Amino acid sequence: MYLWLKAFHIIFMVCWFAGLFYLPRLFVHHAMSEEDVTRERLAIMEGKLYRFVTPFMALTLIFGGALLWVAPGLLSQGWMHAKLGLVVLLVIYHVRCGQLVRALAAGPPAHSHRYYRVFNELPVLVLFPIVFLVVLKPF
């Protein structure tokens, strides 16, 4: 059972990250666009992608929670505490993406394309330590 839960957790995490990597890239194009038609099209794409990827976040959290329920001893390990802290940051990032989707749909971009380029890199900065923590279990 544990391995099945782990497999689904990883599958949904990969799907969630695919969205977290691509959605802010759309924000960059949105901010760079000067044509209203293009901005409207990008706003539709952003909204659809956010709605598509949000269930992957939920399923990642559900299967991760199920893993902790099946193997509660993981909660006594320091690397898991660090990982869960990073997961909280990812959830906040995801919520922020939703705020940006709504803001971009409502009007012109509030930030430059450079802002969105930097914003786009943040999930990578979280993914690396999560993978290192899970594989190396340093604490």
How many strands, what sense, and barrel or not for the largest sheet? Answer: none
* Alpha-carbon Rg, integer: 17 Å
For the terminal residues, how far apart are their CA atoms?
26 Å
- What fraction strand? under 5%
Summed up, the helix count is 4
Which percent range fits the helix content?
over 70%
Number of distinct beta strands: 0
The string of secondary-structure elements, in order, is HHHH
Based on Cα principal axes, name the global outline: elongated
What structural category do the secondary elements indicate? Answer: mainly alpha
Average pLDDT, rounded to a whole number, is 97
Uncertain ranges: none
Q: What topology emerges from the helices and strands here?
A:
Elements: H1 2-32, H2 36-70, H3 78-106, H4 113-136
Helix pairs in contact: 1-2, 1-3, 1-4, 2-3, 3-4
